[in-house]
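A favour, since you know our structure tokens better than I do. It will help me judge whether the discrete encoding reads sensibly. The space below this message is yours for that.
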Amino acid sequence: MTFLLSLAGPLAPLLMNPEVGEVVVNGPFDVWVELDGKLRRVDTRFRDSLELRQTAVRLVSACGRRIDDATPMVDARLPDGSRVNVVLPPLAVDGPLITIRRFGTAALRFSDLVARGAISSEQARDLTTLVRGRRNTLISGGTGTGKTTLLGALTGLVPASERIVTVEDAAELSVQAEHVARLEARPANVEGRGAIDLRQLVRNALRMRPDRLIVGEIRGGEAIDLLLAMNTGHDGSLATIHANGPDDALRRLETMALMGGVDIPHTAIREQIASAVHAVVHVVRSPDGGRSVASIHSVEREGAGWQIRVFER
């Protein structure tokens, strides 16, 4: 952490504050932080765009990555586990942009979320039933609603005897289990070679004897590989997906499965989803910044598609 702070320049005091969840830099004179789920402007300033650019380059270098005019956009994981996104001009019109998403040093456990009111006692029973009953579950929600936090907390309900294999674009999931193997995607190098994407990792994970397969976030064609895994004996899989609601989550999953380039009929993908996904847990963030589970729906096959219903134990 000390090493990271030495690279952060004017942002160092903000990163030292454990209450800050996110740091957003919109140019040398416009810096915001997220506190209690709300964005607030702070007095932190850079001397000019050059100092901001130098700070951005140092942060990206700490991730073993490179950013310059040829590669003006980078998303990477810092040594402390935080995620940094940097965009340089001319893509960024008003100067370099930096977004640092931080993760607490102490991961929230399932019981912590219940105590905070993010999960009601009834929802806690339902979620426990889903995880321990090895039901394939999607966690849906918008950006910053707590999908990853909930996913990490749910891993604490997995029996200690089971092996978990996680697949993430950027490793940010706090897995609360004893037997865990973590996989992280790798971007291409400066020559455009060496990239390892989520699809390759999901396929490899299936060869690693997983009792549970966990995908940090479904973003593209790996959706079809996850569906095939769920439908071939890998019960109890968990994943997150950006969506406005449970039904939207399934439709987005359908769209991304079609992006996988597998030559199967559209109706077959819908049938795969209806058979593979057993439940969708939707999380929201309220106007006051609080995050909570809004609903838990079961997914049932209906014809060539699916029907979602309020979950009943």
User: Anything to note?
Assistant: The chain has a mean pLDDT of 89. The chain is about 30% helix and 25% strand. The longest strand covers residues 291-302. The domain at 110-310 is CATH 3.40.50.300 (Rossmann fold).
